[in-house]
Amino acid sequence: MAAATTAAKRPAPSNSDPQSQTTATPAPLSFPRPIFAALSPHPFLRAHLTSTAPVADRKSGAKGASKRQGIRANGRTPSESRTPQVHTGSLTHCNGSTVVRLGNTVAVCGVRAEILKAEADVEVTEKVDEDEDGGDDDDAEEELRALGLLVPNFEISTGSTPLLLPGNAPSAFAQTLTARVRNLLLATKVVRMRDLRILYTPSIDEEGVGGTRRKVVKGYWTLYIDTLFVSLDGCAFDAAWLAILAALRDTRLPRAYFDEEFEDILCDDDPAQARRLRLRGLPVPSSFAVFEAGETGDEDDDEEGADKMWILSDPDAFEEQVCREAVCVVVDLDRRTGGRGMVVRKIEKSGGGVVGRREMRGLVEMAWERWKVWREVLGA
Amino acid sequence: MAMNTDRRRINAPSGGTSAPVFARTVKEQGYLQSLRPARTRAPNDLRKIFLQTSIIPSASGSAYYEIPSDISPSPKSLIPPTSSLKIVASIQGPKPLPRSAPFSPTLLLTTTVKFAPFATRIRRGYIRDSIERDLGVHVEAALRGVIIGERWPKSGVEVVLTILEADEDGFWGDGGKGEGSGWGLLNVLAGCITVASAAIADAGIDCVDLVSGGVAAIVPNPESKNGEETEVLKVLDPSPAEHEDIIAACAVGYLAGRDEITEIWMKGNVGVSPDDLVEGATYAALGNLAVLKEVLLESIQARFASQQPQSGAGDGANAKDGPQQDVEMSG
């Protein structure tokens, strides 16, 4: 990160080619770096990716590798992701909260639990009560979805990016993000329905048939998952999911019980009685953007390398603007094989046809590497 | 929880949810009162503030402001303690107004204040309510008197303040009494003014002076035992939860260099000497200004220090546009 501002001040030499074609101007036009990036973002990124010269002394560690790959405008190699940082428990009024940094993307997430009272007492069978890892819980997911116990929402228009200003309704981007996150939350079944039920065993069991006490669901915990972007520099989905996952892992629900005297659900404020949410798995998304060299339709299409493309992992805001094709791969540890292999939980791809089967295989591998990084950061 | 269905967001379950009720607060007599915080500072002591600029690289100026809570969350209870103030300010612009906008000879200032849903003890919605709009107008008034708007004709600047955590209106255990009284809002306003001022300075927008916010309040003197009604105490930077009762309070936006006040918000029964209260608030603002100045000086020094090695760049003014700046953000 710190190395990004240094060097590469002047545009790389390959940029002067278009001018020398048209007129015979001897001195090529030279801009300061930010202006070049703003005026012609596509050639700017291409110049960076194709230039190989200034790379070697930049990263002392990976000399050979980066030399071949070229370097992005933000100083990373195409396959290099930003290291996530997580800080938990920073908000007072939340059951679980995190501040997550992914480079210049900063998200704050707070999970707040409130109680939804059950309309009528729902009896619980012992089977549902004890569903463990493997048990088939399609009903549980249906229940979670039907009751709407997970309420993820986003606020992006906080001045975090110049593109989205406050005072407007949530943009299409924000709405898409919300829908994607909610779908992933439900599809991966990260939150267990069992953790959210508030059970009650009637002390006077007038219906105690068969010797076993009946349990009744008196209410449900509803999790309001509010994520707020303080600063947005690309990869909003990854950052949002990381923030949510970390906040959910941090969430402590107080012990809630039905009090017969008050005829209402009360909670115990003793931290020893509270329990953490036991999340199911650790699905980790990795976003990629595909940058095509010959995308703009310039005259220099016939140049060699015009059909070249780069897959940039963890793209920042500038790269997201330039690239059209985007891929998001969600992977998790495969629990059924005893925690050795990996499973793909979701693949999203849009905007182009560059990434085929072969490339996708590589991306999944990279996503798996990313999973390991996340696991370390989250301490899972 | 207002049941307005917002089609663009995900809504709460249709039945509505309620915040958890803790058993000990309703069953044990006196437990609530044992949680009540008390002011340990001297009447003229201010709470420590934490301020940092340039936290959002894509904004032209930004700042983060926090009054760290001196009460650490108690290990014995899950009930959240008194919250601290945490505000993020972001400046977008100045940028040209759209062609459709009418001509403006000065800089158009737009201030937006928004509470995060988790900012207060009772969860807030996403749609801006009247309190937030009101606060926005107050902050705007404080800032408008400082910015030299004539230097940016036909342009607009957007000041966005996001309150991650707000001061409370009173001790939460007092039930509905403290809620809605708005004592906490004065602290929020003062914080907003200070942090917006820092962000504006960070954005390099010309100002006549640095504005800073401060609050003072008149509270019943806890020392007075014999019930004399005249026994009141003026405190600077009150934390409403620490006082059982607040008689009057005042928040100001104060320009120390010119001894001017750009914004004043007074509440309650001030009595015969409102000037005394205003003066107290300006003292509090002076205290905040000292921190503000120091932070800005530090950030400028850091910026110049990072500029030195790359002398050949030639565009020193564009320091903000460097793609990466290392930022530490706590909170």
Automatic annotation (TrEMBL), chain A:
A cellular component term, taken from the record's GO annotations: nucleolus
Start and end residues of each stretch annotated as Disordered: 1-35, 51-92
Signal peptide: none
Sequence intervals crossing the membrane: none
Main location: cytoplasm
Superkingdom in the source lineage: Eukaryota
Biased composition (Polar residues): 13-25, 76-92
BP GO annotations: exonucleolytic trimming to generate mature 3'-end of 5.8S rRNA from tricistronic rRNA transcript (SSU-rRNA, 5.8S rRNA, LSU-rRNA); nuclear mRNA surveillance; nuclear polyadenylation-dependent rRNA catabolic process; rRNA catabolic process; TRAMP-dependent tRNA surveillance pathway; U1 snRNA 3'-end processing; U4 snRNA 3'-end processing; U5 snRNA 3'-end processing
Alphabetical keyword list: Cytoplasm, Exosome, Nucleus, RNA-binding, rRNA processing
Positions of the Exoribonuclease phosphorolytic domain: 80-254
Matching Pfam families: RNase_PH
A GO MF label: mRNA 3'-UTR AU-rich region binding
Compartmental location: Cytoplasm; Nucleus, Nucleolus
Family stated for the protein in its record: Belongs to the RNase PH family.
Protein name: Ribosomal RNA-processing protein 43
Native organism taxonomy: Eukaryota, Fungi, Dikarya, Ascomycota, Pezizomycotina
Automatic annotation (TrEMBL), chain B:
Annotated region described as Disordered, given as residue ranges: 306-331
GO biological process: nuclear mRNA surveillance; poly(A)-dependent snoRNA 3'-end processing; rRNA catabolic process; rRNA processing; U4 snRNA 3'-end processing
Molecular-function GO terms, alphabetical: RNA binding
Gene Ontology CC terms, in alphabetical order: cytoplasmic exosome (RNase complex); nuclear exosome (RNase complex); nucleolus
Recorded superkingdom: Eukaryota
InterPro entries registered for this protein in UniProt: ExoRNase_PH_dom1 (IPR001247), PNPase/RNase_PH_dom_sf (IPR027408), Ribosomal_Su5_D2-typ_SF (IPR020568), RNase_PH (IPR050080)
Keyword Metal-binding applies: no
Protein keywords: Cytoplasm, Exosome, Nucleus, RNA-binding, rRNA processing
Record's subcellular location: Cytoplasm; Nucleus
Coarse class of the protein's main subcellular location: cytoplasm
One Pfam family from the record: RNase_PH
Domain Exoribonuclease phosphorolytic residues, every copy: 46-205
Family statement: Belongs to the RNase PH family.
Protein name: Exoribonuclease phosphorolytic domain-containing protein
Organism of origin: Westerdykella ornata
